[in-house]
Specification:
The complex is a heterodimer. Chain A is an alpha+beta fold. Chain A has one domain. In chain A, helix 5 packs parallel to helix 6, helix 7 packs across helix 8 and helix 7 crosses helix 12. Chain A has 14 helices and 5 strands. Chain A is elongated, with a radius of gyration of 36 Å. The longest helix of chain A is centred in the N-terminal third of the chain and has 31 residues. Chain B is mostly helical. The interface between A and B is large, with 44 and 63 residues.
Chain lengths: 318, 191
């Protein structure tokens, strides 16, 4: 008695069936047959073009799915913008960073920003390195000096926790770097939510959405201030011009909440609409200093209520 | 003479093991009798085995097998070359078996019992061959026996059997493996 192997079992089965099959080929060839059409019931499932197509495509679909997943993972980690960091001195620069805090894109928001960014390739650079490089370039080009040492840091990030972390880390780093480079530093930091309206407004003024958010808050709380003139001022000037007026930019940045409820947001869209409707919004613009020259004459220094309003305020027109 | 008969049988068995050339179907549409006879020799074992595994009765399996070849003659012009003539043929076989099921209301359980008394098994000349085929039909689940018999007789790969039976490859492989194990155990001491 020999071992029962799989091969042996299959061989027995094959022989058994072959013995049972009658040879009727000749007889069947001579029988009359009906020519079938495609609707013949016994052909169900034989044409199956659709299934065949799916089977042929299955490997391609699987490969495509893997590719999409890999790309998605790569995109989420490396290409997706997780946070946007705005630096304003007078040069305004926007840094878009991924989840690994590497720079995906660096953009200048105004001509000074373009000067600062000139010849710099910050792509794939660590955010802290990029910020340092930008500060160094600002010092080199004379935008940051011992007396012009105010930097506005704005962070736009969906994650509140991440936003807070970036603000804390970067503001400390900027403070230390600028202090080391020019002897002193003042950093204003804030969280912003740069929606379309804010970006449009920022583009209009050639500033970052971060600075746009700041001056909007200032102007909203102090209607006497002129937005055009605020937008045109470098950060150090914003800080120094309003010193003692009760309108300190620092009050409008450095807010404890990562996402303060911006009262300006309700009116922002109307403001943007007005700007867009205006044919030449800067045609009648005065020298920004004209409106602010008197600000230092606020003898009692008790705030914006006593501060000399702009000449073109509605009250003056009447 | 005996030697010639032996060679002829071997040749026939060998041809039955190989998958048919789909060109045969094209030639059948041109009324090529040789092509039909060749196709019959190459595939009748698989058609019969599949029908037997479904119907579990030799006479029913034989009827379906003959009907299958008549349908092949009538429908060869509708065959779309896809490199799978065996699958096309066995799908026709399955449809004919299903129709027979519906007509006779014959259940698999009854067929298993019938298999033991089926006179068709007397045609199997070798006792061990007969024991193994009966054991496959009686001791295995219908799906296990179908997979094992198709694999042994048709020359189809497990993947192709899976496509024919609409089963995932993993299921075919596990049922094949489990079925053979059961069968070997069943045959212990009998061969």
């Amino acid at each position: 008695m020999s071992t029962v192997t799989n091969d042996r079992v299959e061989r027995h089965l094959k022989n058994a069936v072959n013995d049972m099959v009658p040879n009727r080929a000749e007889a069947l060839w001579h029988q009359p047959v009906e020519r079938a059409d495609e609707t013949a019931w016994y052909l169900d499932g034989t044409a199956s073009r659709r299934r065949t197509a799916i089977k042929v495509l299955r490997p391609a679909l699987a490969a495509a799915a893997v590719f999409v997943l890999v790309f998605l993972a790569y995109f989420l980690v490396n290409l997706r913008i997780q946070a946007t960091v705005y630096l304003d001195v007078n040069p305004s620069v926007t840094l878009s960073v991924n989840s690994r805090e590497r720079v995906i894109r660096a953009e200048a928001n105004n001509p000074d920003g373009r000067i600062v960014l000139e010849d710099m390739n910050l792509k794939n650079t660590d955010l802290d390195v990029a910020v340092n490089a930008l500060l160094g370039s600002m010092v080199k080009h004379g935008y940051l000096t011992e007396t012009q040492n105010v930097v506005l840091l704005s962070v736009d990030c969906d994650s509140e926790k991440k936003s807070q972390t970036l603000r804390i880390e970067l503001s400390r780093q900027i403070d230390q770097s600028v202090d080391a480079m020019v002897g002193s530093a003042r950093v204003l930091d804030q969280s912003v939510d740069a929606d379309e309206a804010l970006v449009t407004l920022a583009d209009h003024y050639g500033i970052s959405p971060g600075k746009a958010a700041l001056i909007l808050r200032m102007q909203r709380e102090n209607p006497a201030l002129d937005l055009d003139k605020l937008a045109a001022m470098p950060l150090y000037e914003l800080a120094s011009r309003f010193s003692g007026t009760g309108v300190d930019p620092e009050d409008y940045a450095n807010l404890p909440d990562a996402f303060p409820e911006d009262p300006y947001l309700d009116e922002l869209e109307d403001l943007v609409d007005d700007l867009e409707d205006a044919q030449e919004p800067h045609d009648e613009e005065d020298d920004p200093d004209d409106d602010l020259d008197d600000s230092g004459d606020d003898e009692d220094g008790d705030g914006p209520e006593d501060w000399d309003p702009d000449d073109d305020e509605p009250e003056d027109d009447n | 003479m005996l030697a010639f008969a032996a060679i002829s049988d071997e040749s026939r068995a060998a041809r039955r093991a190989s998958l048919p050339d789909e060109d045969l179907l094209l030639r059948i549409t041109r009324e090529d009798k040789d092509a039909f006879c060749t196709l019959y020799e190459q595939t009748s074992g698989a058609v019969y085995a599949y029908a037997l595994s479904l119907l579990r009765h030799s006479q029913d399996a034989e009827d379906v097998m003959q009907e299958t070849f008549l349908k092949i003659r009538g429908a060869a012009h509708l065959y779309t070359p896809q490199g799978k003539p065996m699958a096309w043929i066995l799908t026709i076989t399955r449809n004919l078996c299903m129709m027979r099921f519906r007509q006779q209301r014959r259940t698999a359980a009854v067929s298993v019992e019938a298999a033991a008394e089926d006179p068709g098994f007397d045609r199997i000349t070798d006792l061990e061959d007969r024991i193994v085929l009966k054991a496959a039909l009686e001791s295995l689940t219908p799906e296990e026996s179908r997979i094992i018999i198709l694999h042994a007789v048709s020359g189809l790969k497990h993947r192709q059997i899976g496509e024919l039976l609409d089963l995932p490859l993993s299921t075919v492989l596990s049922k094949y493996s489990r079925g053979l194990k059961k069968l070997r155990k069943e045959l212990e001491g009998k061969l």
